[in-house]
């Protein structure tokens, strides 16, 4: 029986995580579209997700499509981060663990998390407006929210960004040592 090296394990799990991320990249926009297309049926069946405003009646197709478009804003940021993470695992799978490409992936993921908070806050506000735009004047809502999950995401994104800077310094030091005789 052949013993697996650490690199073998990294390659194996990276390949599996790439597959999961690829599935995520395909499924999330598709499921979001399906959710909004069948929103009324799903809501009647008790399948409810947290929305910025409470929806107690059926909503028309135009409103649901508008809501889907608004939801695409944070989804786009999430997909960008997933693509970067997938790229990072692709590098790990190839045995490339300590390079500028890895640094770029970390930097972009950190920036994506910071953007996620901004876009998510804007998206929730727009979603509340989209979901109540058909209401009579005086019953339309515009909500703005910022909570602990957004703070956690901001901190996580900042930490990943700093890690990317540290990794960049380390990669530069590695290259200097390689060219030092």
Would you give an account of this structure?
It holds the Pfam family DUF2975. The chain is mainly alpha-helical and 181 residues long. It is 75% helix and 0% strand. The chain is built from 5 helices and no strands.
Briefly say what this structure is.
The chain is mainly alpha-helical.
The SSE string, one letter per element, is HHHHH
Going by helix content, strand content and strand pairing, the class is: mainly alpha
Termini Cα gap = 41 Å
Q: Look at the structure and give the mean pLDDT.
A: 92
In terms of per-residue confidence, which ranges show pLDDT below 50 for 5 or more consecutive residues?
Answer: none
Tell me the quaternary state: single chain
Radius of gyration: 21 Å
Give the helix level as a range of percent. Answer: over 70%
Please state roughly what percent of the residues sit in beta strands, choosing from under 5%, 5-15%, 15-25%, 25-35%, 35-45% or over 45%.
under 5%
Tally of helical segments: 5
Give the overall shape, derived from the CA principal axes: elongated
Main β-sheet, in a few words? none
Number of strands: 0
